[in-house]
Design goal:
This protein is an alpha+beta fold. The chain starts with 11 loop residues before the first helix and ends in a 7-residue tail after the last strand. It has one domain. The chain contains 2 helices and 2 strands, in the order H-E-H-E.
Amino acid sequence: DASIAVKVYPNMRRAREVELRALGTRSFVAARRKSQWRGEGREFESLRDYVRGDEMRHISWTATARRGRLVTRQYQMERDQTI
């Protein structure tokens, strides 16, 4: 009667497929257009639902676990500042 602890991780490939289907074509196009203008800077702006083409390194795994769907960190363009 030995008990063994086993960690089970989600199949992220399957989660990605399900999430992309849920987005639908219309919201995918709108979200992709928006993401072309955002996400290249280094200043964190917000979290948003994952859209196809988002870089895996920008996925917030803690928010993904909490929400049960893929979530991407979004960044805003850096601005020059006079000091």
